[in-house]
Protein backbone atom coordinates (compact mmCIF):
# COMPACT_ATOMS: atom_id res chain seq x y z
CA UNK A 1 0.00 0.00 0.00
CA UNK A 2 1.38 3.39 -1.00
CA UNK A 3 0.39 7.07 -0.78
CA UNK A 4 1.23 9.72 -3.37
CA UNK A 5 1.08 13.51 -3.35
CA UNK A 6 0.66 14.37 -7.00
CA UNK A 7 3.22 12.06 -8.59
CA UNK A 8 5.53 12.04 -5.55
CA UNK A 9 5.45 9.00 -3.30
CA UNK A 10 4.99 9.80 0.41
CA UNK A 11 7.53 8.17 2.72
CA UNK A 12 6.43 5.18 4.82
CA UNK A 13 7.05 6.95 8.14
CA UNK A 14 4.15 9.34 7.40
CA UNK A 15 1.73 6.48 6.72
CA UNK A 16 -0.14 4.37 9.26
CA UNK A 17 -2.06 1.16 8.75
CA UNK A 18 -4.70 -0.23 11.03
CA UNK A 19 -5.64 -3.57 9.41
CA UNK A 20 -7.40 -6.31 11.42
CA UNK A 21 -8.46 -9.84 10.49
CA UNK A 22 -12.07 -10.92 10.90
CA UNK A 23 -11.79 -14.34 12.58
CA UNK A 24 -15.09 -15.58 11.20
CA UNK A 25 -14.63 -14.68 7.53
CA UNK A 26 -10.83 -14.68 7.72
CA UNK A 27 -10.82 -11.49 5.64
CA UNK A 28 -9.11 -8.21 6.50
CA UNK A 29 -10.50 -4.76 6.99
CA UNK A 30 -9.30 -1.48 8.44
CA UNK A 31 -7.93 1.96 7.60
CA UNK A 32 -4.85 3.38 5.93
CA UNK A 33 -3.88 6.91 6.95
CA UNK A 34 -1.35 9.51 5.99
CA UNK A 35 -0.51 12.65 7.99
CA UNK A 36 0.98 15.88 6.66
CA UNK A 37 0.82 19.64 7.39
CA UNK A 38 -1.94 21.36 5.38
CA UNK A 39 -0.26 24.40 3.84
CA UNK A 40 -1.23 26.53 0.78
CA UNK A 41 1.02 24.33 -1.35
CA UNK A 42 -1.42 21.45 -0.85
CA UNK A 43 -4.39 23.38 -2.21
CA UNK A 44 -6.07 21.52 -5.08
CA UNK A 45 -3.36 18.87 -4.88
CA UNK A 46 -4.39 15.28 -5.64
CA UNK A 47 -3.57 12.67 -2.97
CA UNK A 48 -3.70 9.09 -4.19
CA UNK A 49 -3.74 5.78 -2.33
CA UNK A 50 -2.58 2.74 -4.26
CA UNK A 51 -3.23 -0.79 -2.99
CA UNK A 52 -1.81 -3.84 -4.73
CA UNK A 53 -3.39 -7.21 -3.93
CA UNK A 54 -2.37 -10.37 -5.79
CA UNK A 55 -1.25 -8.35 -8.83
CA UNK A 56 -4.42 -6.23 -8.93
CA UNK A 57 -4.07 -2.48 -8.29
CA UNK A 58 -6.81 -0.49 -6.57
CA UNK A 59 -6.60 3.32 -6.48
CA UNK A 60 -8.48 6.05 -4.67
CA UNK A 61 -7.89 9.80 -5.19
CA UNK A 62 -8.73 12.80 -3.02
CA UNK A 63 -8.32 16.45 -4.00
CA UNK A 64 -7.26 18.66 -1.10
CA UNK A 65 -8.97 22.04 -0.61
CA UNK A 66 -7.23 24.29 1.92
CA UNK A 67 -9.40 26.87 3.70
CA UNK A 68 -8.83 30.50 2.70
CA UNK A 69 -7.81 29.54 -0.86
CA UNK A 70 -9.86 29.94 -4.07
CA UNK A 71 -11.36 26.93 -5.84
CA UNK A 72 -11.77 26.98 -9.63
CA UNK A 73 -14.56 25.15 -11.41
CA UNK A 74 -14.05 23.47 -14.75
CA UNK A 75 -14.42 25.91 -17.64
CA UNK A 76 -17.75 25.69 -19.49
CA UNK A 77 -18.40 26.72 -23.08
CA UNK A 78 -21.60 28.29 -24.42
CA UNK A 79 -22.33 26.88 -26.95
CA UNK A 80 -20.51 23.64 -26.19
CA UNK A 81 -19.80 22.78 -29.85
CA UNK A 82 -19.59 26.12 -31.66
CA UNK A 83 -19.40 26.81 -35.38
CA UNK A 84 -16.76 28.93 -37.04
CA UNK A 85 -17.68 32.60 -36.82
CA UNK A 86 -19.95 32.00 -33.83
CA UNK A 87 -19.60 33.96 -30.58
CA UNK A 88 -18.44 31.69 -27.73
CA UNK A 89 -18.54 32.47 -24.01
CA UNK A 90 -16.14 30.60 -21.69
CA UNK A 91 -16.92 30.72 -17.95
CA UNK A 92 -14.98 29.74 -14.85
CA UNK A 93 -16.54 30.00 -11.38
CA UNK A 94 -14.19 30.86 -8.51
CA UNK A 95 -15.38 29.92 -4.99
CA UNK A 96 -13.77 29.65 -1.54
CA UNK A 97 -13.68 31.70 1.64
CA UNK A 98 -11.26 34.33 0.32
CA UNK A 99 -11.72 37.99 -0.57
CA UNK A 100 -12.30 38.41 -4.35
CA UNK A 101 -10.37 41.69 -4.15
CA UNK A 102 -7.23 39.70 -3.26
CA UNK A 103 -7.41 37.63 -6.45
CA UNK A 104 -5.76 38.46 -9.78
CA UNK A 105 -7.62 36.87 -12.70
CA UNK A 106 -6.41 36.61 -16.28
CA UNK A 107 -7.15 34.51 -19.36
CA UNK A 108 -4.57 32.82 -21.55
CA UNK A 109 -4.65 31.46 -25.07
CA UNK A 110 -2.40 28.45 -25.06
CA UNK A 111 0.34 29.48 -22.64
CA UNK A 112 0.30 33.19 -23.51
CA UNK A 113 -1.83 35.88 -21.85
CA UNK A 114 -4.50 37.27 -24.16
CA UNK A 115 -3.50 40.40 -25.99
CA UNK A 116 -5.74 43.41 -26.43
CA UNK A 117 -8.59 42.69 -28.83
CA UNK A 118 -8.34 38.88 -28.56
CA UNK A 119 -11.42 38.56 -26.35
CA UNK A 120 -13.81 40.40 -24.06
CA UNK A 121 -13.24 39.56 -20.37
CA UNK A 122 -15.80 40.02 -17.58
CA UNK A 123 -15.59 39.46 -13.83
CA UNK A 124 -18.77 39.46 -11.73
CA UNK A 125 -18.99 38.95 -7.96
CA UNK A 126 -22.12 36.92 -7.14
CA UNK A 127 -24.30 37.32 -4.05
CA UNK A 128 -22.85 34.15 -2.50
CA UNK A 129 -19.35 35.63 -2.69
CA UNK A 130 -18.20 33.54 -5.64
CA UNK A 131 -16.66 35.20 -8.68
CA UNK A 132 -17.83 34.46 -12.23
CA UNK A 133 -15.02 34.95 -14.73
CA UNK A 134 -15.99 34.90 -18.40
CA UNK A 135 -14.29 35.36 -21.74
CA UNK A 136 -16.12 36.02 -25.01
CA UNK A 137 -14.38 35.08 -28.26
CA UNK A 138 -15.28 34.50 -31.90
CA UNK A 139 -14.41 30.97 -33.01
CA UNK A 140 -11.96 30.91 -35.92
CA UNK A 141 -9.50 28.45 -37.41
CA UNK A 142 -6.92 29.88 -35.01
CA UNK A 143 -8.86 28.17 -32.20
CA UNK A 144 -8.91 24.77 -33.89
CA UNK A 145 -7.53 22.24 -31.38
CA UNK A 146 -6.41 25.20 -29.27
CA UNK A 147 -6.92 25.87 -25.58
CA UNK A 148 -7.90 28.73 -23.29
CA UNK A 149 -7.03 28.91 -19.60
CA UNK A 150 -8.39 30.88 -16.66
CA UNK A 151 -5.58 31.78 -14.26
CA UNK A 152 -6.22 32.97 -10.67
CA UNK A 153 -3.41 34.17 -8.41
CA UNK A 154 -3.99 34.45 -4.64
CA UNK A 155 -1.33 35.07 -1.98
CA UNK A 156 1.44 34.19 -4.39
CA UNK A 157 -0.06 30.86 -5.55
CA UNK A 158 -1.48 30.55 -9.07
CA UNK A 159 -4.27 28.15 -10.00
CA UNK A 160 -5.25 27.45 -13.56
CA UNK A 161 -8.02 25.64 -15.44
CA UNK A 162 -7.71 24.77 -19.12
CA UNK A 163 -10.40 24.26 -21.76
CA UNK A 164 -10.13 23.02 -25.36
CA UNK A 165 -12.57 24.56 -27.83
CA UNK A 166 -14.43 21.83 -29.76
CA UNK A 167 -14.29 22.81 -33.44
CA UNK A 168 -14.59 20.50 -36.47
CA UNK A 169 -11.91 19.79 -39.06
CA UNK A 170 -12.45 21.59 -42.37
CA UNK A 171 -10.75 20.44 -45.57
CA UNK A 172 -9.67 23.12 -48.07
CA UNK A 173 -11.32 24.25 -51.29
CA UNK A 174 -9.07 24.96 -54.26
CA UNK A 175 -9.66 27.57 -56.94
CA UNK A 176 -8.89 26.88 -60.57
CA UNK A 177 -5.26 27.44 -61.57
CA UNK A 178 -4.64 30.94 -62.93
CA UNK A 179 -1.55 31.81 -64.97
CA UNK A 180 0.34 35.01 -65.72
CA UNK A 181 0.82 35.72 -68.55
CA UNK A 182 -2.48 34.19 -69.64
CA UNK A 183 -0.78 32.44 -72.58
CA UNK A 184 2.70 31.25 -71.49
CA UNK A 185 5.60 31.50 -73.95
CA UNK A 186 8.45 29.04 -74.28
CA UNK A 187 11.61 30.32 -72.61
CA UNK A 188 9.83 32.95 -70.47
CA UNK A 189 8.88 32.58 -66.83
CA UNK A 190 5.21 32.06 -66.00
CA UNK A 191 3.48 32.09 -62.63
CA UNK A 192 0.72 29.58 -61.86
CA UNK A 193 -1.44 30.31 -58.79
CA UNK A 194 -4.09 28.49 -56.77
CA UNK A 195 -6.12 30.01 -53.92
CA UNK A 196 -6.64 27.61 -51.01
CA UNK A 197 -9.53 28.55 -48.74
CA UNK A 198 -11.94 27.35 -46.05
CA UNK A 199 -9.59 25.07 -44.10
CA UNK A 200 -8.26 24.32 -40.63
CA UNK A 201 -4.60 23.43 -39.97
CA UNK A 202 -2.54 21.92 -41.46
CA UNK A 203 -1.93 21.52 -45.20
CA UNK A 204 0.93 20.31 -47.41
CA UNK A 205 1.31 21.64 -50.95
CA UNK A 206 3.04 20.03 -53.92
CA UNK A 207 3.21 20.94 -57.61
CA UNK A 208 3.75 18.43 -60.43
CA UNK A 209 4.52 18.51 -64.12
CA UNK A 210 3.04 15.29 -65.41
CA UNK A 211 4.48 12.87 -62.82
CA UNK A 212 7.54 14.89 -61.76
CA UNK A 213 7.56 17.00 -58.58
CA UNK A 214 8.72 20.61 -58.75
CA UNK A 215 11.49 21.60 -56.27
CA UNK A 216 10.52 23.60 -53.19
CA UNK A 217 12.38 26.72 -54.32
CA UNK A 218 10.00 26.97 -57.30
CA UNK A 219 6.94 27.11 -55.01
CA UNK A 220 5.77 29.97 -52.80
CA UNK A 221 2.90 29.38 -50.38
CA UNK A 222 1.69 32.35 -48.34
CA UNK A 223 1.05 32.18 -44.60
CA UNK A 224 -2.58 31.29 -43.83
CA UNK A 225 -4.83 34.17 -42.79
CA UNK A 226 -8.37 34.21 -41.43
CA UNK A 227 -10.87 34.77 -44.25
CA UNK A 228 -14.43 36.06 -44.24
CA UNK A 229 -15.66 32.57 -43.35
CA UNK A 230 -13.40 32.61 -40.24
CA UNK A 231 -11.36 29.77 -41.72
CA UNK A 232 -7.85 29.89 -43.13
CA UNK A 233 -7.10 31.08 -46.65
CA UNK A 234 -3.81 31.32 -48.48
CA UNK A 235 -2.36 31.03 -51.97
CA UNK A 236 0.32 28.90 -53.55
CA UNK A 237 2.27 29.88 -56.67
CA UNK A 238 4.59 28.01 -58.99
CA UNK A 239 7.28 29.92 -60.91
CA UNK A 240 8.29 27.95 -63.95
CA UNK A 241 10.00 28.67 -67.27
CA UNK A 242 8.47 26.28 -69.81
CA UNK A 243 10.36 24.98 -72.82
CA UNK A 244 9.07 23.79 -76.20
CA UNK A 245 9.08 20.21 -74.90
CA UNK A 246 6.60 21.23 -72.17
CA UNK A 247 3.87 22.04 -74.68
CA UNK A 248 0.65 20.26 -73.59
CA UNK A 249 2.28 19.09 -70.34
CA UNK A 250 -0.14 18.60 -67.46
CA UNK A 251 0.56 20.79 -64.42
CA UNK A 252 -1.03 19.76 -61.16
CA UNK A 253 -1.34 21.38 -57.72
CA UNK A 254 -1.93 18.86 -54.94
CA UNK A 255 -2.98 19.94 -51.44
CA UNK A 256 -3.11 17.42 -48.58
CA UNK A 257 -5.15 18.22 -45.47
CA UNK A 258 -3.36 16.66 -42.50
CA UNK A 259 -6.33 16.40 -40.11
CA UNK A 260 -8.79 14.76 -42.51
CA UNK A 261 -6.05 12.92 -44.46
CA UNK A 262 -7.74 14.00 -47.69
CA UNK A 263 -6.05 15.49 -50.70
CA UNK A 264 -7.43 17.84 -53.33
CA UNK A 265 -5.95 18.85 -56.65
CA UNK A 266 -6.34 21.21 -59.58
CA UNK A 267 -4.95 20.57 -63.07
CA UNK A 268 -3.85 22.79 -65.92
CA UNK A 269 -2.90 21.77 -69.45
CA UNK A 270 0.06 23.91 -70.51
CA UNK A 271 -0.70 25.55 -73.87
CA UNK A 272 2.33 27.51 -75.05
CA UNK A 273 1.81 30.53 -77.27
CA UNK A 274 2.55 29.70 -80.89
CA UNK A 275 2.08 25.95 -80.23
CA UNK A 276 -0.30 23.59 -81.92
CA UNK A 277 -2.61 22.84 -78.99
CA UNK A 278 -6.27 23.72 -78.93
CA UNK A 279 -7.67 26.97 -77.53
CA UNK A 280 -10.82 26.96 -75.40
CA UNK A 281 -12.93 27.83 -78.48
CA UNK A 282 -11.24 25.10 -80.53
CA UNK A 283 -11.72 22.70 -77.63
CA UNK A 284 -15.48 23.25 -77.83
CA UNK A 285 -15.41 22.61 -81.58
CA UNK A 286 -14.08 19.09 -80.97
CA UNK A 287 -17.65 18.00 -80.25
CA UNK A 288 -19.47 16.80 -83.36
CA UNK A 289 -23.19 17.10 -82.81
CA UNK A 290 -24.18 14.70 -85.56
CA UNK A 291 -21.94 11.75 -84.75
CA UNK A 292 -22.25 11.80 -80.96
CA UNK A 293 -18.48 11.30 -80.77
CA UNK A 294 -15.59 13.49 -79.71
CA UNK A 295 -12.45 13.78 -81.76
CA UNK A 296 -9.24 13.01 -79.82
CA UNK A 297 -7.31 14.20 -77.86
CA UNK A 298 -9.72 15.35 -75.06
CA UNK A 299 -8.20 13.09 -72.39
CA UNK A 300 -7.56 15.32 -69.38
CA UNK A 301 -8.70 13.74 -66.12
CA UNK A 302 -10.91 15.93 -63.97
CA UNK A 303 -13.41 18.67 -64.73
CA UNK A 304 -12.48 21.46 -67.13
CA UNK A 305 -14.28 24.73 -67.73
CA UNK A 306 -14.85 25.37 -71.45
CA UNK A 307 -16.10 28.92 -70.85
CA UNK A 308 -13.12 31.26 -71.05
CA UNK A 309 -14.54 33.86 -68.63
CA UNK A 310 -17.40 32.35 -66.63
CA UNK A 311 -19.65 35.05 -65.18
CA UNK A 312 -22.70 35.28 -62.94
CA UNK A 313 -25.80 35.30 -65.14
CA UNK A 314 -23.98 33.81 -68.14
CA UNK A 315 -23.81 30.34 -69.63
CA UNK A 316 -21.08 28.09 -68.22
CA UNK A 317 -19.97 24.87 -69.91
CA UNK A 318 -18.04 22.21 -67.98
CA UNK A 319 -16.66 18.95 -69.31
CA UNK A 320 -15.39 15.80 -67.63
CA UNK A 321 -13.39 13.03 -69.32
CA UNK A 322 -13.69 9.46 -68.02
CA UNK A 323 -11.36 6.80 -69.37
CA UNK A 324 -12.33 3.18 -69.96
CA UNK A 325 -16.10 3.85 -70.12
CA UNK A 326 -18.71 4.31 -72.81
CA UNK A 327 -21.43 6.95 -72.74
CA UNK A 328 -24.30 4.48 -73.24
CA UNK A 329 -23.49 2.48 -70.10
CA UNK A 330 -22.19 5.24 -67.83
CA UNK A 331 -24.38 7.24 -65.43
CA UNK A 332 -23.28 10.88 -65.03
CA UNK A 333 -24.53 13.04 -62.16
CA UNK A 334 -23.48 16.71 -61.97
CA UNK A 335 -23.81 18.53 -58.63
CA UNK A 336 -23.16 21.94 -57.10
CA UNK A 337 -22.35 21.14 -53.50
CA UNK A 338 -25.00 18.56 -52.55
CA UNK A 339 -27.61 19.59 -55.11
CA UNK A 340 -28.03 18.46 -58.76
CA UNK A 341 -27.26 21.05 -61.44
CA UNK A 342 -30.20 22.15 -63.56
CA UNK A 343 -28.62 22.26 -67.01
CA UNK A 344 -28.24 20.61 -70.40
CA UNK A 345 -26.07 17.47 -70.28
CA UNK A 346 -24.48 15.82 -73.31
CA UNK A 347 -22.58 12.52 -72.99
CA UNK A 348 -20.38 11.44 -75.91
CA UNK A 349 -17.86 8.71 -76.71
CA UNK A 350 -14.31 9.30 -77.90
CA UNK A 351 -13.70 8.09 -81.45
CA UNK A 352 -10.67 6.03 -80.40
CA UNK A 353 -12.84 4.09 -77.90
CA UNK A 354 -10.67 5.04 -74.90
CA UNK A 355 -13.47 6.65 -72.90
CA UNK A 356 -16.24 9.21 -72.95
CA UNK A 357 -16.92 12.84 -72.10
CA UNK A 358 -19.84 14.44 -70.28
CA UNK A 359 -20.54 18.14 -70.85
CA UNK A 360 -23.02 20.27 -68.93
CA UNK A 361 -24.17 23.81 -69.77
CA UNK A 362 -26.07 25.91 -67.23
CA UNK A 363 -26.74 29.50 -66.19
CA UNK A 364 -24.43 30.56 -63.36
CA UNK A 365 -26.15 32.12 -60.34
CA UNK A 366 -24.76 34.45 -57.69
CA UNK A 367 -24.88 31.56 -55.21
CA UNK A 368 -22.57 29.57 -57.52
CA UNK A 369 -19.66 31.89 -56.84
CA UNK A 370 -16.71 29.78 -55.60
CA UNK A 371 -18.96 26.71 -55.31
CA UNK A 372 -17.64 23.14 -55.56
CA UNK A 373 -18.82 21.28 -58.67
CA UNK A 374 -18.80 17.47 -58.70
CA UNK A 375 -19.17 15.08 -61.61
CA UNK A 376 -20.08 11.62 -60.34
CA UNK A 377 -19.75 8.72 -62.79
CA UNK A 378 -20.95 5.16 -62.29
CA UNK A 379 -19.79 2.39 -64.64
CA UNK A 380 -19.93 -1.35 -63.96
CA UNK A 381 -21.05 -0.62 -60.37
CA UNK A 382 -17.91 1.47 -59.77
CA UNK A 383 -18.45 5.11 -58.80
CA UNK A 384 -15.87 7.85 -59.24
CA UNK A 385 -15.95 11.58 -58.55
CA UNK A 386 -14.13 14.55 -60.05
CA UNK A 387 -14.25 18.02 -58.52
CA UNK A 388 -13.80 21.64 -59.59
CA UNK A 389 -13.89 24.87 -57.57
CA UNK A 390 -15.90 27.13 -59.89
CA UNK A 391 -14.64 30.71 -59.95
CA UNK A 392 -17.00 33.29 -61.45
CA UNK A 393 -16.32 36.86 -62.51
What does this structure look like?
The protein is built from one helix and 35 strands. The termini are far apart. The chain folds into four domains: 2-63, no CATH class; 71-164, Immunoglobulins (Immunoglobulin-like); 173-269, Immunoglobulin-like (Sandwich); 281-389, Immunoglobulins (Immunoglobulin-like). Helices cover 2% and strands 51% of the residues. The protein is mainly beta and 393 residues long. Strands 16, 17, 18, 21, 22 and 23 form a six-stranded antiparallel sheet that branches. Strands 26-27-32-33-29-28 form a six-stranded mixed sheet. Strands 7, 8, 9, 12 and 13 form a five-stranded antiparallel sheet that branches. The model is unreliable at 275-299 (pLDDT under 50).
Largest sheet: 6 strands, antiparallel
Q: Structural class of the helices, strands and pairings?
A: mainly beta
- Give the terminus-to-terminus CA distance: 74 Å
Provide the gyration radius in Å: 32 Å
Beta-strand fraction estimate: over 45%
Q: Give the count of helical stretches.
A: 1
The CATH architecture category of the largest domain equals Sandwich
Gross morphology: elongated
| Proportion of helical residues | under 10%
Q: Residue-averaged pLDDT, rounded?
A: 84
The domain tally reads 4
Q: Give a count of the beta strands, DSSP E runs of length 2 or more.
A: 35
CATH C-level class of the largest domain is Mainly Beta
The CATH superfamily of the largest domain is Immunoglobulins
Amino acid sequence: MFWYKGITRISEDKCRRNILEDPESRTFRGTIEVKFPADPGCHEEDFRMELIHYGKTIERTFRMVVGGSPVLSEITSDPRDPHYGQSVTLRCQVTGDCDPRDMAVKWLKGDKPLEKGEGAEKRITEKDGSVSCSLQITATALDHRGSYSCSVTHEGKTLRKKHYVHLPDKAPTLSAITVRPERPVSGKEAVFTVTISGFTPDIRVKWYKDFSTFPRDAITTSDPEIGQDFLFTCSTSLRFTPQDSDHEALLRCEVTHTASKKFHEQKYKLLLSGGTSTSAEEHRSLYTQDSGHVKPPVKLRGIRCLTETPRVGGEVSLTCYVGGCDADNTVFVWRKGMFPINGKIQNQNLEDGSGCVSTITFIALESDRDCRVTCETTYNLETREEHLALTLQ
